[in-house]
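Ligand: zinc ion. Inputs:
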Amino acid sequence: MSERYADIIVDITHEKLDRTFQYRIPPELEGQIQEGTRVKIPFGGGNRLIEGYVIGLDSRKKYTEGKIKSIAAVAEDGITVETHLIALAAWMRKTYGSTMIQALKTVVPVREKRKTRSRKQVCLNLDREQTESCLEEFRRKKYRARIRLLEALSEQPELSWEYVTKELKVPADTLSGLEERKIIRVESYTVYRNPLRERDEEGAEQAEAVLTGEQASVCAGILSEWKEGPGRPCLIQGVTGSGKTLVYMELISRVLEEGRQAIVLIPEIALTWQNVRRFCSRFGDRVTVLNSRMSPGERYDQFERVRKGRVQIVIGPRSALFAPFQKLGLIIIDEEHESSYRSEVTPRYHAREAAVERGRLEDAHVVMGSATPSVDACYRCRSGEYALFRLVRRYGGAELPEVYPVDMREELRKGNRTVLSEALQEALRLRLKAGEQSMLFLNRRGYAGFISCRSCGYVVKCPHCDVSLTYHSNGRLICHYCGFEREPVARCPECGSPYIGGFRAGTQQVEQVVKKMFPRARTLRMDADTTRGKDGYEKILKAFAAGEADVLIGTQMIVKGHDFPGVTLVGVIAADVSLFASDYRAAERTYQLLVQASGRAGRGRRAGEALIQTYHPEHYSIRAALTQDYDSFYEEEIACRELMGYPPAASLLAVHGSCDQEEKLKNAMEYIRRYLIRVRRKSTVQLVGPAPENVAKVQDYYRAVIYLKDGDEQELIRMRDLLERYIEINRGFDSVYIQFDLNA
Ligand code: ADP
Ligand code: ZN
Ligand code: ZN
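Predicted complex:
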């Protein structure tokens, strides 16, 4: 047998991850050593025995003979949480394609370079009434600095010392005076501050909530899945408001009782924090919350609390998956279908897949939930890989809204060229008259300038890939999967109408139209422009919840999370925009958005109504969304994926290239294509492209992509690994940046 070697890391901190040492695996330890194993090694000149972790295995020696030492032994307490996390990193490296160091840096938190960190906070000690009377006093006495401070504090009860002294220009001795009078207190917190200790009134009822019959039976079903070991990953498909969160909390309680811990993943969007509060009020100090705005150091601090067993539940976005619990029992993935669960940086892992792998490594359960599950997850339920549970009733008997389609081709025929159909205008008018609120949703996600006919709905598509063609800067229409090109069209090839072109309305235009038609309506707009500032979202949502506007107009941001009991109408301006985005998940995303959007109506006592404006009322995504019929949507969708060879029916590997020189990128991608053809072992592996990417140029970097399709994922992974090595040793790729995406 040939000799084998292990790369070992001695100090598992973020900044030392690059420093590995190679050791020989002695024959007697062969078979006991894997990625993640903790071992003892002779170190340094004196061969002192120290411990380290194996992060990679190799059959090649990196140094000349004589220099290399052997591993002494496997450490007694050989398996730690680090062992599992390293093994998870190794899995990520292999599955998604990256270096081991990149993968390790994803799972191991950054330890902050410890500067003396004295962060002081100025906190308000008074309730609202006391604050008011205090303010009155200061105003009478014209204490300007104190007025500034109290006004700011009544907006936000905790402010940083820097902000108070530098921005508000409140002198330090004024502050100590106020502190003596117990109007404020100055806290110097450094670490371990629960980021969610704030103003928490809601959710106190959660502790006593009794599960409904339906909820209890889902709970029982999942527990029986867990009877013998961790069981399969479980998917709860539950309509919005059916009580998924309550079921999660029940399951978490069970796991905590066994002395194990839980991770709750939520999408990376501020609006789900309503839900987070409920966890905090039920589990109190046992919970810690991570958010994506935390500095790496703050995240590290939270992970330290986790490691030391100070908390039992971590809630957070994607990266909370790597919380270093010693005895992880359960991973929950809420809103499993959300696209923010896929990482945008290498390794481009999907949190659901990585969670299932971490669960496997640590014998932890995995439970996910959604009203509109991803086609991927549903596919796995159908195959029996995941177990499926359903919640079909809204809690308290609230009705799902009535959803109606509006055929926009008819509007054009009637001579209405505005973005609001007559039906939607009428519905808005009624709501305004009744003093009820409406939401207008403009779907811009995946918007890429597809070309469609407003008279008959025809969309110009790629004849090979079944995705829509998009306008390119050179005036031609291009497919971003295969590079197919054609000249632009002046008249509809289907019906001859000249009303063919891109869809261009934005939220601003919609707002203008509403204002013009209903001059007395109070409108609020929520999009990337209006939410830019800190707490931008929250402010708009709060204002709308407080009834300060009649109509909220926005992009997909308005679809999620928040409950507005006063909303009885949801209007979807243009459902088709995402339906014909130029990627294969367009129909899935449209169905999800439409169901989630219409679910916003009628959350309160009054029944709700949703109007969906579309040029394709006959499309299965739209038809299924009208009746919230997930199964019929899924059947149609999976049939398309099977026909076209898209995931999850087959595997799809994308090779993304970017470079600041167009010619160089073109050459590199051509070399990649030829190389892939050379190493292809099966003629079934389909190669598509190279084609310019959807966004073909970003900040002066040109971008192109090659797709590989096959039923055999391992074959694609094998080809990718070969390609990685080819790129590594080839000078021609020096300034070309290559990234891989598997089934993204
Ligand atoms: P989902 O997560 O499925 O959208 P939630 O868990 O948010 O649903 O439940 C919707 C609302 O119904 C919440 O306000 C929740 O407190 C309430 N609710 C659900 N189930 C119960 C129950 N068994 N007892 C009391 N309130 C419940
Ligand atoms: Zn037409
Ligand atoms: Zn194509």
